[in-house]
Structures are given as C-alpha cells and as structure tokens.
Amino acid sequence: QVQLVESGGGLVQAGGSLRLSCAASVRTFSSYVMGWFRQAPGKEREFVAAITWSGGSTYYADSVKGRFTISRDNAKNTVYLQMNSLKPEDTAVYYCGVDVSSLNLIRMFPDVYDYWGQGTQVTVSS
Q1: Does residue 95 carry a pLDDT above 90?
Q2: Which of 42, 51, 44, 40 is CA-nearest to residue 124?
Q3: Residue 64, C-beta contacts closer than 8 angstroms, at least 6 positions apart
Q4: How would you write 10-69 as a 3-class SS string?
Q5: Separation between Cα atoms, residue 126 and residue 9, nearest integer Å
Q6: What percent of the chain stands above pLDDT 90?
Q7: What is the per-residue pLDDT for 40?
Q8: For the residues of 80-102, what is the DSSP string, one character each?
Q9: How far apart are CA 89 and CA 111, in angstroms?
C-alpha cells in the first residue's frame, strides 16, 4: 500500500514563500520519479514540477520556472517543493504523485502517475 501525505500549504501574500512536503510510505521510494501537480477550482490538474529518482534531473512548468524548486531526500522518503515569489494565480490544491513506471523519464501527464496524496491547499492573496 502506497501512501503519500502532503503538508505545508496555507495562506500567503503575493511575493511570499511556502515549502510543501510530501512524505511517501513506499519501500522503493528512491526508485521512482516524483511529481508535483496542482488543481485550481474548475480547472484540470496541471503539471508543476518533477524530479528523477536520484534528484539529478528536474523539470518545471514554464509558469513556475525560476520561482519553484523541487528536491527530494530519499533517506526520508520525502519530496519537497519550495515556492518563492508566489502569485495569486498559484492558488490551487497541490498534489504529489509517484510514477512507478519511471526511473529517469519525467512525464508531465497526470494520468501516468500511479499514486496521489490527498492534496494541500495553497492560497495566495493579492
């Protein structure tokens, strides 16, 4: 049974920062690509960032590039998303997902991710 638990969301003013965490209870956490996605009300879930098993490669959506940083600590089975210079359009529920079919190939489509957390709300006020 794979469980992902996100935390760190909250309410922040525009220009502020938040750090999201996703703790995974999966035996071979270090073997998989991990991704962050977000979903705003009335919109589809969209890719934010992903990281390969070793952390050697990362990929970001254009909308967050230069502001967000994804990282992972395989010893703690945790992936992080540091979000700086937040904008009101970043407001969404943020989810982490694990792609158990991929070691090094980062895929941006939510359908290929096998497990998800419950999400954490991020609200950015203007």
Answers
A1: yes
A2: 40
A3: 48, 49, 83, 90
A4: EEEECCCCEEEEEEEECCCHHHCEEEEEEECCCCCCEEEEEECCCCCCEEECCCCCCCEE
A5: 17
A6: 83
A7: 97
A8: EEEE-S--GGG-EEEEEEEETT-
A9: 23
